[in-house]
Amino acid sequence: MLTAxxxxxxxxxxxxQKGNAILRVTPxxxxxxxxxxxxxxxxxxxxxxxPMAFKLADMYGNSITGKIVNFSVKDPVGDSTVVGLTPISxxxxxxxxxxxxxxxxxxxxxxxxxxxxxxxxxxxxxxRVAVTESLPTIPSLxxxxxxxxxxxxxxxxxxxxxxxxxxxxxxxxxxxQNLSSDVIxxxxxxxxxxxxxxxxxxxVIAGYRPPxxxxxxxxxxxxxxxxxxxxxxxxxxxxxxxxDTTLHNPHEIIMHSGKFVADGTxxxxxxxxxxxxxxxxxxxxxxxEIEIME
Length: 294
Prior knowledge:
This protein has one helix and 24 strands. The chain is mainly beta.
């Protein structure tokens, strides 16, 4: 009984000595202002975008609260304004985040929305909003095909449409054009019913072969800044034109607007990758085929 009493007394003393400690992290100077939601959207003219969220953080990723962030938008001809943005400034919340939305009431094309720290214009981030007159009337590209992260086929009921418009002409799935021509390459996805409103990455891939060449076809992909990156054919290394975006029905994609940078032939594929499973759904049945001549 004596031993038991000592154990009980000792345990009680240890419990009484316990206390709580709160670790507070003091963030450093703001260095990063990055898009976290609503990146690279496609909207129809006279509609409002989904919220575009930016997070202000220090170099270690710690959120910075209570700072004013200003918003601006650059239109397709390069002029900057605040017209169409709501709000035009905001104060970062407890997570370091601010949000704005853009209402497209001007000309169609690619708009760049920029968030800038009010007292330090060198701290900024931006995202892209593609504005169109309406969903384009473009030809069908047939049924979709889907593969999982292991390259195995998966059943889906999605369909694709898409094409290229040269010098504001009709959209077609196959064309021969001059390098000097202005083009728009678009796609419209009708997703599998089970995938609507899910989070996805939008992926664009193009097979390229130089003119009059028997060389092996090379494959390229687009990233969020519309950079053209060579793809090594490894599914795991696929980058995305749009990351973690909500899949709509239908879902429109602008893959290119303007002139091409080189002659040759292109076979364009596009689709979406489900964020939760990694399954990729794309226009396997029929690519957009483009021959570009000098």
